[in-house]
Amino acid sequence: MRAGILTKTNHLFSLFMFTLIAVVILGLVGCGGGGSSSTETTTPAESGSGVVSAGQITGFGSIIVNGVRFHTGGAELELEDGSTIPLTNTNNEDHLSRGMEVEIEGSIDDNGNGTATRVSVDSTLDGPIANLSQTGDIFTFTILGQTVIAAPGMTVVDDTVLNRSLNNLANGMVIEVHGLPDGIGTVQANFIEWKAANVSALPPQRFGADRQRDLTHRNHFHDRQSTGRLQRSNPARRYPH
């Protein structure tokens, strides 16, 4: 009698252990399936169309912006007067300069290589120089009441009338400034381009009558945001185009 009870008890214990092991195994298989789903890797898509980078040009060989080399073959260059020029990988320096602020539409692949479909010139200030002064190598002036500083090594100067020299700046001269404001609201000029000897000398075919009248209202800064590899620029323009 006692032996029969023990045999029955052992049988029930074995059945319980078999059931417990089966439940554990099924649980592990279930977790494994879930883990496989959650850890499955996918190849991230390229940074899509639209503005993928905004900043100053720091080099050529195509163009380099924010450390990314963008191939420009087949891209379109949009100037601030609305005109467009087709770009190749070899004619960039004919129309652009180091220090210029641009916005780039296109894509950046997983290896960090950029392809531009559109490059837009995006200057910070246009207007006549006032209050020009020089302290050592540093030049300070205002455009439309906004203080600008420029210095050799920091500022690239165009090679037309200014002949690559800040010493050729003069009060009343109309220039285009590319740069960003520092922490105290002063624009640090990365690039300066000559536009006209004075406001009245602005060529109508280049600026148009409305742009000449509204020149004193041209003034905008860049509010930069950066998300991953995507650098966006949101210029707060306070003048009509």
Q: Can you offer a commentary on this structure?
A:
There is one protein chain. Among the domains are: 71 residues, OB fold (Dihydrolipoamide Acetyltransferase, E2P) (Beta Barrel); 94 residues, OB fold (Dihydrolipoamide Acetyltransferase, E2P) (Beta Barrel), CATH 2.40.50. The strands form three sheets. Strands 1-2-3-7-6 form a five-stranded mixed β-barrel. 21% of the residues lie in helices and 39% in strands. It is an alpha+beta fold. It has three helices and 15 strands. Strand 6 and strand 7 form a beta hairpin. The radius of gyration is 32 Å and the shape is globular.
Secondary-structure blueprint of this entry?
Elements: H1 2-38, E1 51-60, E2 63-65, E3 68-71, E4 76-78, E5 84-86, H2 92-95, E6 101-108, E7 114-121, E8 125-135, E9 138-143, E10 146-150, E11 156-157, E12 174-181, E13 187-196, H3 204-213, E14 222-227, E15 230-235
Parallel strand pairs: 3-7, 4-7, 10-13, 11-13
Antiparallel strand pairs: 1-2, 1-6, 2-3, 4-5, 6-7, 8-9, 8-12, 9-10, 12-13, 14-15
H/I helix tally = 3
As residue ranges, the low-confidence spans are 1-9, 28-47, 205-241
Oligomeric category: single chain
Reading the helices and strands in chain order gives HEEEEEHEEEEEEEEHEE
- The number of strands is 15
In short, what is this structure?
This protein has helices at 2-38, 92-95, 204-213; strands spanning 51-60, 63-65, 68-71, 76-78, 84-86, 101-108, 114-121, 125-135, 138-143, 146-150, 156-157, 174-181, 187-196, 222-227, 230-235. By secondary structure, it is of the alpha+beta class.
Features:
241 residues; five-stranded mixed barrel; OB fold (Dihydrolipoamide Acetyltransferase, E2P); globular; disordered C terminus; 15 strands; alpha+beta
